[in-house]
Write a structure and sequence with these properties.
Growth Hormone, Chain: A, disordered N terminus
Length: 481
Amino acid sequence: MTTPSGQVSSSAGQLIIARLERLQVWSLSWVFIGIIGLGFLFTFYDIFDINVSFIQTCVALKPGCTPVNALDALPLPVLLNLAGYVVGTLVLSPVADKIGRRNMLLITMLITGLGSLYNAFSTDYVNFNVARIITGIGIGADLAIVNTYISEVAPRRARAKFTTIIFIMSALGALAGIWLGLILTTPATPWPNGLPFAVASPGFETGWRWMYGVGALLAAVAIVLRFELPESPRWLIGQGRDREADIVVSAMEARALRHGPLAEPVLETAAPQILPPSKVPYRDLFSSPLYRRRILLLFIMWFIGYITVYSYASGFTSVLTSLHYSPPEAGVIAAVGTFGFVAEAVIMSFIVEKLERRYWLPIAAVVTLAGAFLVALAGTNIGLAFTGAILIFAGFNLWVSPTYALTAESFPTRARTTGFALVDGVGHLGGGIGVLVIAPILPKMSILGALLLISSFLIVAAILVQFTAHTRNRPLDEISP
């Protein structure tokens, strides 16, 4: 029921939110973790697959491109993909605040899958870049909506934990993207300078197409499975659909009861006023001094942090190649590094709730810098280079999942996806700076100077994040009324 002022007036809705806040365990089917995670697996597969495969793509589609000069062409598709992120997240994410998280999760994954399929069948460099834009449009919005959804259904004491569990699938996607690229798009080379079983050859130069085809298949499976997801009960209550929200929360309570008796709901954990989604979410956020400050701070933090993330995620192989590693050897170092990403995500799922969200970014900066030093000092010691790469990939990803949680927690339910889109989605432009501005100057630097420059942006982001709100183990409506 809605009052003349537009406010949803429902004591039943407040009680439902209080019932949701008392849940201490994951109370949806564990299958849903895999369903949501499969979307993240595809998303990060797509982000990382260009890291190794782009050299073969460039040679196939761009006249005059060779393995030696492919780095010169890399910034454009990465930048266009990130531009798609910004457009997609700004246009599509607010729609999720209006029509629901689940419905938009289906739409965004459809767009990303079509973009990947388009990439697989691109006939020239122009079409390849158009496909990267389309894929970026879907991915940018999908990241915002997934993180919003998780923050709204996960137990209060474990929002960052379950964001990180989903992030494990991201790590597996990155691992698959780089290793499959190494297998399909590089020639067989004796280990450790390459993979002896890699299959690229004069008779097989289309491995990059198969990679994007795999991405499209992953997206198709994710779409089918996402039909099983329930809608966010918080969003339903904002719509005045208390009965539907009650059905979802009742099912969650029944599952939680398997772990023990439930505490009594505390109405103080729910907002005293339940507001419906704004017709203009951007206006709702920018008209509030509180949310204007949060938008500015979080945007700058993400923008600067993503300079480091994308310099490594999309360009580490090309960066190493420009710093005089052979392409197969650079690909192997990057591929081994992804094991650090997976290990980090698994370990963080157990410890992420031990610290406030903002404390993880300084730790991430230290780990990344340590890895950079090892790679720079490795010389011909491939084992030391592998260790450094593992630390780099662990470090530049270590802060992402707790900061995803912090970002989603920093905005109200009525405009949560929109707020996430504004800071994280637009913040991806920092990744474009990393590839477009930072990467071209690296060949003029020593390997130590180059890697320290890339990593140093995390230090700045680590300082900025210390000014964000305390959110761990606080009710969402208390953090963001």
